[in-house]
Amino acid sequence: MATSLFFFSQLNMCEPKEKTFFKLIYGSGKEETSKEAKIRAKEKRNRLSLLVQKPEFHEDTLSSRSGQLAKETRISPEEAVIWGESFDKLLSHKDGLETFTRFLKTEFSEENIEFWIACEDFKKSKDPQQIIHKAKAIYEKFIQNDAPQEVNLDFHTKEIITRSITQPTLHSFDAAQSRVYQLMEQDSYTRFLKSDIYLDLIEGRPQRPTNLRRRSRSFTYNEFQDVKSDVAIWL
Prior knowledge:
There is one protein chain. The chain is mainly α. Helices cover about 65% and strands about 0% of the residues. It has a domain at about 75-205: Regulator of G-protein Signalling 4, domain 2 (Orthogonal Bundle). The chain is built from 13 helices and no strands. Helix 2 runs parallel beside helix 9, helix 8 (about 110-120) runs antiparallel to helix 9 and helix 8 crosses helix 11. The longest helix is centred in the first third of the chain and has 19 residues, at about 55-75.
């Protein structure tokens, strides 16, 4: 956590969009003791208990679900069929990337696509300071042992990254990104094509509700698209 605070103290050296990157990587950056966290959790439960008793809460929830359904119905079966042609075509389509991310959440493996997105953004960095700060942020979020969103990499790949993280280059994560890409393509993508989420889309059926349980705070494509210039490659 001390390292995280150091990075936040250096944010004034980065462009405004870099602030978005670090906010998404690290969250708010505020430390909480165990006692403070318990108190905040209790307060949240109490507020939620009061909130769900209000009629307008249920109206807002229904409105939110209706909005999500309306967005999903804008995806035509023809578009969804194209996603099944190749993994590249799925990731190159904005709605395809969003839908695949939603699927990975149901399998508790969304860190893979989030790491891939972070690497795509990292490779577009220009300033040397941006490269250093972003590389360390990605390393702490996805690579180091017991990272919050640690991705599944072999020892050799992790060791190479660890040794070079003090002097990173735009290619520091290439091997790791390729490994994660192959893992998603050969494993997650094949299951995605057989999932209800995808089959409902290509058959034009209304989307079924999915239970999304998150293991920890992490950024998703919906949040990451605030950095517009950084995700243009997929649009």
